UniProtKB/TrEMBL annotation:
Lineage, top ranks: Bacteria, Bacillati, Actinomycetota, Actinomycetes, Mycobacteriales
Protein name per the record: Peptidase
Gene3D superfamilies xrefs: PmbA/TldD superfamily
Organism: Mycolicibacterium duvalii
Xref: Pfam families: PmbA_TldD_3rd
One GO BP: proteolysis
GO molecular function: metallopeptidase activity
Length: 457
């Protein structure tokens, strides 16, 4: 493959040569993906792959209107570049006027590392994980799981002179252990696998499996429930995906106010919780500028290359901001707000063990899966518990219980939460393929709704 920087130059040159667009935006992402898998105490597969995605976005302006054509390809041959430019300009010429049209952003300085080679990763990054697993494979527990490490280097360039570049590391390791019909899961999110201790993960699995030596059946109902950070991340990430300013302004989301407008300024919880995204968050750093191939209600192709800063979506328990690209912000007279690819929430001072110790009777969850939206007007969600629901009695875990289907809204959970524990970096189980950078507290919910018993194991 030719270098990504050369792809950018060729695409912009082809756009100028054809001359059928007023502006051109080029995105190139080079991705290196390494993976390691194991099943039933045996390594099964490992490998590395390299891929590239090229997006050419053409903008044709006619008076106050702007028309956009966006064409994407995973082909790597240089000959495809001219074809992409032609297809993009042709699409823009026939497109309807873009609702999110905004003035072009000015150019700036070229990053000092613009011409540097794209960094790589490989299976060597898993050496520490593999060493720990080798010892774990000698135990009586059956271990299953996988680890992955992805490096994505994204280049954004425009005909107005913008040049942006960022390398995003994404890593995770998940281990599932089975013993006598019981199943337990642990997972870690990491940018580089430094400090990931397989031994500690295996110790945690052994503890959870020991809790399952005694099992009891419980009926559906409302239970005091301790939600660990992974479950909180899964449900709050979905909340963040729905925090579109346009959708709320137009009365289409749970963040719409009765009678018009939005719920910004409304107090959600008496706990002093702040939920925010921040591309500079330590250990959860992510792309600090907009780089999107198509527009959505939360992002716009017209904003490609624009800086992303910290946004407090909820501040001290109050809804503080919604997502507004530049065009929507101008239309609704709101601050521009674009979320980074991470989500954090502050918490309290109590570790999970102390919250369990202070529970007279309740449930301790592990993870959620198969989550779906049921009613967007109140953001009601359903899903299943997975890989360990435990009964807490008099401050101790005394048994494992059956799985449940739940029905809950993140907005309502925040309203009813009575305690928040320490905020910790966590791996969302349900959304881990799309959102691995999260830091969340444990939450205590006095009446979590387990709507039915699930037979899932």
């Amino acid at each position: 493959m030719i270098g990504a920087q050369q792809v950018v130059d060729l695409a912009l040159a082809a756009a100028r040569r054809r001359g059928k667009a007023d502006e051109t935006i080029v995105l190139v992402t080079d991705r290196i993906d390494a993976s390691l898998r194991w099943a039933n105490n045996t390594m099964t597969t490992n490998g590395e792959s390299t891929s590239r995605t090229i997006t050419v976005i053409s903008v044709v302006r006619r008076g106050a209107d702007a028309h956009v054509g966006s064409v994407r390809s995973s082909a790597v041959a240089p000959s495809v570049i001219d074809e992409l430019v032609e297809a993009s300009q042709r699409a823009a010429a026939t497109a309807t006027a873009a609702r999110d049209a905004a003035p072009p952003l000015p150019g700036g300085d070229v990053p000092v590392d613009w011409d540097a080679p794209v960094p790589r990763t490989g299976v060597d990054v898993f050496l520490g994980v593999a060493d720990g697993l080798a010892r774990g494979f000698r135990s009586a527990d059956a271990l299953f799981g996988y680890a992955r490490h992805i490096l994505e280097t994204t280049f954004v360039a425009t005909s107005t002179g913008i040049r942006r570049r960022y390398t995003q590391p994404t890593g995770s390791v998940e281990i599932n252990a089975k013993r006598d019909g019981a199943s337990a899961w642990v997972g870690r999110s990491t940018p580089d696998f430094v400090g990931v201790s397989t031994e500690l993960m295996l110790d945690e699995l052994a503890t959870r499996l020991s809790w399952a030596r005694r099992t009891i059946e419980l009926p559906a109902g409302r239970y005091e429930t301790i939600m660990p950070p992974s479950t909180v991340a899964d449900i709050m990430i979905y909340l963040s995906w729905t925090m579109s300013g346009r959708g709320a302004e137009e009365g289409r989301t749970a963040l719409s106010a009765p009678g018009g407008g939005t719920r910004v300024g409304e107090k959600l919880t008496s706990l002093p919780l702040t939920m925010y995204s921040d591309p500079t968050a330590a250990g959860l750093e992510c792309t600090p500028f907009v780089a999107v191939p198509t527009s959505s209600e939360r992002t716009s192709v017209f904003d490609n290359g624009m800086d992303i800063g910290r946004v407090d979506w909820i501040r001290d328990g109050v809804i503080n901001a919604l997502a507004y690209p530049r065009a929507a912000a101008a239309e609704f007279d709101a601050p521009v707000a674009v979320g980074a690819d991470n989500l954090l929430m502050t918490g309290g001072s109590a570790p999970l063990a102390d919250m369990v110790a202070n529970t007279e009777r309740g449930l301790l969850l592990t993870t959620f899966w198969y989550m779906r939206e049921v009613d967007p007007s109140v953001l009601l969600m359903t899903g299943l518990t997975r890989d360990g629901v435990y009964l807490v009695e008099d401050g101790e875990v005394t048994a494992a219980v059956n799985n449940f289907r739940f029905n809950e809204s993140p907005l309502d959970l925040l309203r009813r939460a009575t305690e928040a524990g320490v905020s910790e970096v966590t791996l969302p189980r349900e959304w881990g393929d799309w959102a691995t950078r999260a830091q969340m507290p444990t939450l205590r919910i006095p009446d979590f709704h387990m709507s039915s018993v699930s037979q899932a194991q």
